[in-house]
Structures are given as structure tokens and as C-alpha cells.
Amino acid sequence: MLEEAGCLVEHETLQKEVLVSCRVKLVSSRIVVLALCLSVSWLWHGAYAQTGKDGQAVASEAARWGEEISTEELKEILAAGSTPVLDVRSEKEYSIAHIPGSVNIYEKEIDDIMRRFPDKSARMVMYCNGPYCHKVKRVGEQLIAKGYTALLRYQLGMPVWRAFGNAVQTDMLGFKYIFSGDRTAVFVDARSPERFKAGTVPGAVNVRFGETEKANTDGRLPYTDKGTRIVVFADTPQEAREVAEEIAHAAFWNSGYFGGTYDQLKQAGLW
Predict the structure, then answer these.
(1) What beta strand segments (E) does the chain contain?
(2) pLDDT tens digits, residue range 14-48?
(3) What global pTM score does this model have?
(4) Which CATH number fits domain 167-267: 3.40.50.300, 3.80.10.10, 3.30.420.40, 3.40.250.10?
């Protein structure tokens, strides 16, 4: 069990990540560290109450469902771009929020996975909704039974990906769902003030890269409700992602960005 700056974390895959995060952030803000550690500990409390698995248990799980990887390992895989990362949740969940760079194949579409990735010896990463989500285990078990030998599981999933300040991507279907149904969501226009004034998503606020700290206190961002869903859009997905990640690093863990452009949103007839 890890105890560092108030952290209590019982899952060894997460211990290394929390330890690094705690030590780095402790230099600049003990409060931020404590909040991060407590939130991560809460995510895992009860899910992995056992105090660490021995090598035999880890090997047994890897043989049954696929080897488990950390957030940093997943980031390295995504940056390399040579290993497919599968989101095995539903199309709707994926469209609302997913890890950038992942592809969506629903857990029940095993034949489709095998058709698209026929090399059974090649690496493949799977993820879903975190420690309580068993979709990756079900998919992994079926694929291993069919001869796949290099499966990887990001069992920490979406909750921990977000907890470590990583933004998620929203597609058009998801944006439509949020725009029409989530009355508490905040839409952030990351374009220039001139472009913002010329026309934007109804109710959106204008926050440029580098303005998050100010926006956190001047009313543009919901300072008293860090769990509010925030969706950033811009003229390019990269511009939107930069602002979304900056917002996520201000403890708005439910922030993401639209993977298209403002013009595409305008042409979609949402308003």
C-alpha cells in the first residue's frame, strides 16, 4: 500500500503513477496533490482491496485477459502510433468521450475485431470504463481463446485517464447528445475573440490557450463545480485539445474537446 502526501492507493499498477504524480506536484501545490491522491484512492477503494498481487497472480491475469499496462505506457503506445488501441464500449459512449487515437469496436463484435486485426501475434490494447468495467476482460478472454497472444489491457480506463489530467475527445454524435441534453455543460470556444464575436455555439464562453487560470476565477469556467462537463471547440482539433488539456490541468477532470471544427458544428444544424 502506498502512502505519500496523504495518498492511500492499493492497486500496484496505479501506485507507480500516483507516486510520480505526487512527488512532482508536491513541489508546486500540496493541495492539488492531496486532491488528486484522494480522488484516485476513492476510484480504487473496494475495487482492488487486496494489497498487491504477487507475480503468479499477475501472470495468471495476463494469460486469461491480457497484460495490464499503465497510463504512461498507454501514452507511449499512442505516441508511437503503431499499436491499435480499442475502445470496446458502445458507439454512443465512445462518441461522447474517448481517449484520442483510439478506435471503437463494441465488445460484442469479436468477429469484427478479428477481421480488422487478423495478426494474432501483434500487440493490441483495449480499454473501457475503468476498474469496475469488465468489457476488456470479456473481450480479452474471447480473443485469447481464439489464439491472440499479445493483448494489452488499460484496465485503469477512462476515469484514471481523466484523473491524471488527460483530455478526451468528443465526436459529432456525442456533441449533439451533449448539446441537446446536458443543460449544465459548458462549451468553450478556443478561437480568437474576433471569431468568437462573429458567431459561436449558443451559450459558449471564449477561453484561449493561456487564459485558463483567469477564466477559472472570472466566471467563464465553473470554479465551484470542477466536475462540470466542459467541451472545447476551435478551428482545428489540435487547437481545441491544447485548451482542453490546459483546463483539465486546472482540476476540471471532465473536460474534453470536439474532434472536428467550429464550421462543422455550424453546418450540422444544431442551432
Answers:
(1) 67-68, 85-87, 103-104, 124-127, 151-154, 168-170, 186-189, 205-206, 230-233, 255-258
(2) 555 555 454 444 444 444 444 444 444 444 443 44
(3) 0.80
(4) 3.40.250.10
